[in-house]
Amino acid sequence: MKIKKAVLTGGGRATRLHPITTTINKHLLPLANKPMIFHAIEKAVEAGITEIFINMNPGETELQKYIGDGGHWGIRIRFYEQTGGPQGVAHVVKEAERFIGHDPFLFYLSDNILLGSLKEMVDSFTRERYDCMLALSQVEDPERFGVPVFDDRRHIIDVLEKPANPPNNFAVTGVYLYGHRVFFDAFDHIEKSARGEYEISSIHSYLLHAGKKVGYREITGWWKDTGKVEDLLVANRLLLDQLEPGEFSNHGTVHHDTQINGNVRIGIGTQTQEGVVVHGPVIIGENCVLRNCAIGPHVTIGPGTEIRGSTIFNSIILDNVVIDGDIHIRDSLIGKKVEIRKQNDDAAAGHRMIVGDKTVIEI
After folding, report:
1. 18: which of 7, 181, 257, 316 lies 20 to 30 Å off by Cα?
2. Which CATH number fits domain 5-241: 3.90.550.10, 1.10.10.10, 3.40.190.170, 3.40.309.10?
3. Which residues of 26-39 are buried (b: 16+ CB within 10 A; e: fewer)?
4. Residue 183's pLDDT band (cuts 50, 70, 90)
């Protein structure tokens, strides 16, 4: 049976991304000017998914507003709250049991960004009748992840959760496939870990020890778990780089002496005034104003933003931001309604900022 259902994550607190995520759901942070979770939805749809269930924090309303019912992608999307507080990644899936029933399904951690397609992995899972399939990727810090254990024939025989001494440099990424009922049967046999959570690695370890057919595919394209600001910036940069030239278009008003180099998208209602230089890839949202500034490469700017006299590269700027003055900004994530103004003539080598919403900074 082909996989038609998927569970995606939309909850959690993302404390490593504070202060930004104190006022915005991490999964709505824009990457290449598109909410992060949209990238996950699109990967799932491309792989043949027609029904998606997204978990969310109690009282969440923003996800529903941004995502809708799935009609934009020609599928059905429903949301569910995770009850009982945060109890681990495996518990997120357990809460979706009433939606999944006996069907095989995809589980996708929406803060994982992939450049490649999932279709081949899904097709292989179905064709070879696996009970479970894991996506693996080589990383520099496997101790942060679930790590597979291989036998001499490179068959996976166990999964260790965040081991202090990883047996290899592979990580189990946030993409998993499960057959009929195997996940929920396994969940009934695992216990919470020492940190009080139902670990997804415990599910996989149980399945392997129970003799289930567990396979894996190595992600040959790029993969990133966007748990840190640095990860978000890398993901944003690579997503911009892989966009086709046809996805960059100018719908704004461009001053005659604006210099545009490379792939640049300019939103409706945006004005570039005198002295603007843009080095793509760059995406500028709707109703922005740019004057006497240098933007890019690898910058995304949210709608309603004003930038005057500044230089910005490799950064994500959210909505309705004001950056005014001779300010050099790099490698930064700047939240909604932030104001950054230069008040003096002191030269600066550059400013690195991680700034929450509705902040005013004068430097």
Report:
1. 7
2. 3.90.550.10
3. bbbbbbbbebbbbb
4. very high
